[in-house]
């Protein structure tokens, strides 16, 4: 990869070099006199540090060391590049780049979901109702930890008052620990499904009980634009502001989280409030809104006049 990039820069002229994620920064020849932009997405160092806090020795030591080393690398990379992009204002703090002015926030977007009448759901979804929903790739440690925490420490509290409630874990590649959760009363592990949209439409509440989290949780965005009440912990909640944040129910203890889910189940007005906000949120959280911001930043760094910049230049190349 290093040789390919070096050859490309030697043999062609580029307006800008755009790098996605910190692990690819090592391949960029900073001496090439080409403007550079890096999209960190998340501050990965902060995630490793979180891993260290919930792991036993020696992994706790190893994760802490990795977090500290990566934090130094991320800060140095942000200083080397002309512009750094992150997904939330908090990521700028986690990157430790408060002294670096060339850090900008470009939020994740979400595609508007087509309207789906909850009364016309497939039979296999209707028979599972009512349910709390978690959606995600289930061999990813933060996701696996979140569903384990909910299934073992929060969901039993809910079953006392709502014995018919199920907890659906929807997403591909559930690891062994997640699959075992399916043996608990009321817990359903689906694995990969053809269409998550139907499961969202049928959910009574979406949950994001993360103890390890960084950046924006797309599963929360998707639930918001589907009009589903969302209960989550405070760390992922800090990525949201304005109208989206106003719709979230936030709790950090098992009892508090169960109480918040119970409120979503028992208060129809919370569901109606979420549904009324869908249209505004689809515009506020749309990909075109986010990508127009990204386009503007790229054009500024590359020095492309605004009257010329109308999308990616036709002569742009990738390697």
Average pLDDT:
91
Shape: globular
Low-confidence stretches: 312-319
Oligomer: single chain
Provide the number of structural domains: 2
What is the CATH class name of the largest domain? Alpha Beta
Number of helices: 15
Radius of gyration: 22 Å
Order of helices and strands: HEEHHEHEHEHEHEHEHEHHEHHHH
The fourth-level CATH homologous superfamily of the largest domain is: Glycogen Phosphorylase B
User: Order of strands in the sheet with the most strands?
Assistant: 7-6-5-8-9-10
Main β sheet profile: 6 strands, parallel
Give the CA-CA distance, first to last residue: 9 Å
CATH topology of the largest domain: Rossmann fold
Query: Helix share of residues?
Result: 40-55%
The gist of it:
With 319 residues, the chain is an alpha/beta fold. The chain has 15 helices and 10 strands.
